[in-house]
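Memo to structure team: turn this sequence into structure tokens by end of day. - J.P.
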Amino acid sequence: MNIETRITYNPLQCGGKPCIRGMRIRVSDILQMLAEGVSTEEILHDFPDLVLEDIQACLMLAARRVNLERLVA
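Reply from structure team:
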């Protein structure tokens, strides 16, 4: 999956937080809904501009960020 086409960053939009395809739907909002038990189907119903691949891209971004290597001195 190419999340670079689905997840966008704009310093003038949503405080520069990652959003979905330039819309004002933040990745963090989608992740929070999923964590609270909202189903993918409910999210897609509530946000008709989204598609399943957008939600998958949010999850992929979260997985990549958690897996960042950090050096500790």
